[in-house]
Amino acid sequence: MRGNKSAVNTVAITPDGKKVVSGSSDKTLKLWDLETGMEIFTLSGHEDSINTVAITPDGKKAISGSSDKTLKIWNLETGTEISTLQGSNYSVAELAITADGKKVVSALKNETLKIWDLEQRTEITEVNVLSDWGYELVMTPDGTKAISKVRDQNLNQTLKVLNLETGQVIFNININNYWASALGITPNGKKAIAALYDSSDIRFMYTDKKPPAADKPIIKVWDLETAEVIFMLSSECYAYTYTDNINYVTAIAMTPDGKKAVIALDDTTIRVWDLQTDQEILILIGHDCWINAITISQDGKKVISASCDRTLIMWDLDTAEEIIFTGHQNSVKTVAITPDCKKAVSGSDDKTLKVWDLQTGQEIFTLTGHRDSITQVAITPDGKKAVSAANDRTMKIWDLETGMEISNLPSQPYKKAGHEKSVTEVAITPDGKKALSISEDDNAIIVWDLEKNQAISILTANLNSVHTLAITPDGKQVLSGCRDNIILWDLETGTEFTFTDNEYYVRTLAITPDGKKLFSGSRDGLTLWDLETKMRIPWIGCGFLINKIAITPDGKKAIYDAYNNNLNVWDFEAEKIIFTLTGHEKMVTSVAITPDGKKAVSGSSDKTVKVWDLETGMEISNLS
What we know:
- Keywords: Repeat, WD repeat.
- InterPro entries: Quinoprotein_ADH-like_sf (IPR011047), WD40/YVTN_repeat-like_dom_sf (IPR015943), WD40_PAC1 (IPR020472), WD40_repeat_CS (IPR019775), WD40_repeat_dom_sf (IPR036322), WD40_rpt (IPR001680).
- It comes from Anabaena sphaerica FACHB-251.
- By secondary structure, this protein is an all-beta fold.
- The strands form 7 sheets. Strands 1, 2, 3, 4, 29, 30, 31 and 32 form an 8-stranded mixed β-sheet that branches. Strands 5, 6, 7, 8, 33, 34, 35 and 36 form an 8-stranded mixed β-sheet that branches.
- A hairpin with a 2-residue loop joins strand 5 and strand 6.
- The longest helix has 7 residues.
- The N and C termini lie close together (4 Å).
């Protein structure tokens, strides 16, 4: 899918799997038809890069988050803005919509999460995660928990699992000397996944010195009930070694059945791992730049990736066939797929989101309204709405049926239930009623009521740079990936548990569909955790940093990004990459899988969106 003038930062798929919305650094969003690959709408209105986008469960609205510190709600049927959610002084980095479509959670770049009521379009509550750098959050499907990554001033990271009802930390996952580069949660909310890498390599990035030879990244899966590692992927499954031998996981996700992990690497590839066999089963190659986000369809057959190559690509996890969605004018940062597998939503640095038809590959809507890059997008369980987060410190709720903005969750200081900096991530609870958001520096996770469009609670704890969140499928817990650990939060009691056996910055998390295991992506690859025992599960993984990962709904495959502009499809049973999806000209920035698991949609810095056939590994469409 081509058409963006800058990197595609975010992407989301409508619940019916027919459309996808992408957001770009060109300040616009685009709605694409996944069947034709054609652009349906261009959504304009943001004043800065679009960082994130999410679609409501009914598929009628999309919410985008931007660097202009706002969220915008779009009507996906008309392609018009419904509302702008304001109340932050920081960019919206991530967002997610609750399963009931009533709330959206936005993450700001000041480490604050905001929860918005999508009906009232007001902030419900705010969570201060007490950190100086936040990137990502993931929520359980039921919206009761979220996982965020936080770091301290010494660049040590922790994953925090939050109770979205009480705002309390359930537990922390301590990843020690590692950073988490990506977070994901399985569809059943029982497991979380994160990509981890040696934090010493990151410290060298802040100096003029070159880092020592780096250990390969690992991917871990945690049990969100016990915070124990139940699986770890650490083999050298990368196809390209980045400068100084550091390979980063940029995104991570698991299939709904928890059997596969999808990992995006800084070599622009996406790797799919079979978590049962510890084998890489697929390498998806097609992006030409960093992959910002990945999302998996509810059927686990497709994954969509968003990249700074300005494209979205939808991949078939069985065949590795791809469809490219183009239309963003800048890097695609995030992507999400509707539950019915008919649509995908992408968010970009062009400040727009785009809704795509996954059957035709055509753009349906372009959602505009954010004033900065979109950092994250999430779709409500009914596929009718999307919630986007952006660097404009706002989150927006969009109607995916009309393409209109429904609401703009306020951008204001977190003490007033808003984010002060960019919202870096947002996640929606499985009932669609709440959303969780984190921001760059305000050290809080904000829980939003998506019906009232207002914040209802704030989760605060000793969070160190929350980078990512993952919500368990039952919605009772949330995992946060931080600089040096993972924290599990009980959303009902507010208690927290820290996973201590982690060494790298957690960049992504994914929970297996049964909610029993957690994958974490970081500098050293993927780590598998047992969420009941909260202990690591030894396994062979890929030795590179993973930023984004998505898992097919059946849990059999995972798609992840890499630095060589490709995506890899991993078969968990075969324990190997079965496809490498190639075609993007720049780094892949995001990916999503259709609910039926047959296709994937990717966004890239080459300004395109691609749709991939996950059964053949072939490109299906290039949306432009």
